[in-house]
Every structure is written in structure tokens, then in C-alpha cells.
Amino acid sequence: MLRFAEACSKDGPDFLAFSPAARLLGPSLQGLSMSGFSIARQKMVDGQVRPSDVTDLRIIDAMLAVPRELFVPENQLALAYLDLDLDVGGGGAAKRFLIKPAVTAKMLQAAEIKAGDHVLVVGCATGYIAALAASLAAQVTASESDPALAGKAKEAFVQLGVANVTVVSAGAAAGVPDFAPYDVIVLNGATEIIPDQLYQQLKEGGRLVGVFATTRPQRALIVTRSHGDFGQRALFDAAVPVLPGLERVPAFVF
User: Fold this and answer.
1) What is the CATH number of the domain that holds 113?
2) 205, exposed or middle or buried, with CB in 10 Å at 0-12, 13-18, 19+?
3) Which among 32, 85, 187, 243 counts the fewest CB atoms within 10 Å?
4) How far apart are CA 192 and CA 133, in angstroms?
């Protein structure tokens, strides 16, 4: 499980003794006091997450504890807690993003991740959503097609003392069938296609949560596997960047 000895939170170390978020911080972060980042983290939760009807205290605790600044490039640290899709691709061929904090929180809440669940995060980029999911689940598999980003995710997990996330090199559409089936699949970006291969990697009763750009406007949906079939339910409107590998195939124009 993710382990934090002393989380960055609103009231410092005394608060941590009673907060579930305390288990999210690793030994390297012990002894932290209030900082600019911890204040920004609190403002992110109070100004973006809570007003978006996120009431699951486990998610709120996780977002207060996980230092989002560790998952962004150094030249973007000042943007780490803003209400935007943050490009962490580092100038690569395909832009890669940490999606907006409120959208992230709402998707995790809709997924209803349980303590014993195995979660697949598709397109984990530098690993922020995977770190949050790891505080909620027993095991997280995080797929990433960009080797540089996968390496950054692994470095962040080591720094935070995360032990229950496995990063796998894989394209977004393929998922990670070797570790399937999954209780929950979370897309770290929008999809313009129906991700059939991912659907097949859900357990019976499993659910996939993501933003679908198959219609306009884009909508976050939850897809549930039941009796070998798949049903979907709209959650909320959301516009996030499309995840590389889940783009619509361009139509041929005469």
C-alpha cells in the first residue's frame, strides 16, 4: 500500500495522527511543515474538488496528501494545482496531460474503488492518478506507452514509498491483459473510440470510468460489465485531452 509517514495537510503533524491521508507519505517526506505546495493543495481541494460534489473523504484525504508537484515538470511547478489539464509530456511527439483535479476526483468517486480492488490506470503519464488510486485500492497496474513518462512515474513512486503500483509499458487501447481481470479501469484522458479491448479486461461487475469524446459534448461515462454484457451511464460533461492510442481513425475523404 501507499505509505506516507507525515502528509502535507491543513493542520500539520497533529492532524496527521488522525487522518487516513497519513498513510500516503513515504519516509523521505517525514517532518514536513506547512509549505507553499501544501497550502496550494488545500486550496485545490477546497476550491476545485469539494465544490464539484466530491464527498468521498478517502479521495479528499488522498488529494490532500499526494504531492501533485512531484508529477509535473520542474518548469511547470507553479501550475501544479491550477484548474487545468497540465501538459507533462516534456515536448514529446504526443502531448500528455494530468487532467483537471476536479475531473480526476469525480471519476475516482464514480468508480467506487474498494480496499480490495485491482485497478488499471490507462495512460498513467507521470503517475498522479495511479498514486491516488493506490491509496484506495489493494493493487494498481498503470500502463504507459511513453518510456520517459513511465520512468518518471516509477521515480515518483519510489520517492513516495509507493509499493502497490506496477508500471507496465503498453499502448492505451491494449490495456494490460496479462494482469487482467480488473475491478476498475480508469482512463487518464479522453477516448474517441469504444475501447473494446479494455472492456474485455473487466471482471464481472467491474467498471470502467473515463471521458468519452465519441459524442459532443464530451461526457464522463461509467461502463459496467454484467453477465457478459456492458452497460453505460453518463456521469457529467467534461472536456479533457484525448489519450494517445485512443484517437478516432481519420476517415478517408475523396
Assistant:
1) 3.40.50.150
2) exposed
3) 85
4) 24
Is 10 a residue whose pLDDT tops 50? no
Q: What pTM, to 2 d.p., does this model score? A: 0.86
Strands 182-191 and 202-212: parallel
Domain total in the chain: 1
pLDDT tens-digit profile of 26-73?
433 333 334 789 999 999 999 999 999 999 999 999 999 999 999 999
The answer to whether position 25 is within a domain reads no
Tell me which residue range forms the domain holding 178. Answer: 69-237
Q: What is the pLDDT of residues 89-111, one digit of tens each?
A: 877 667 899 999 999 999 999 99
DSSP 152-214: HHHHHHHHHT--SEEEEE--TTT--GGG--EEEEEEEEEESS--HHHHTTEEEEEEEEEEE-S
Residues 50, 59 contacting (CB under 8 angstroms): no
Mean pLDDT of 197-209: 98
Residue among 197, 191, 207 at smallest CA distance from 170: 197
Give the integer Cα–Cα distance in Å for 182 and 171.
Answer: 17
Considering the domain boundaries, does residue 58 fall inside one?
no
To which residue does cell 475516482 refer? Answer: 108
- Domain annotation covers residue 107: yes
Long-range contacts of the stretch 80-84 (C-beta < 8 A, 24+): 80/37, 80/40, 81/37, 81/40, 81/41, 81/43, 81/44, 83/47, 83/48
Q: What cell numbers appear for 251 in the block?
A: 476517415
pLDDT value for 231? 97
The C-alpha atoms of residue 235 and residue 155 are separated, in whole angstroms, by 33
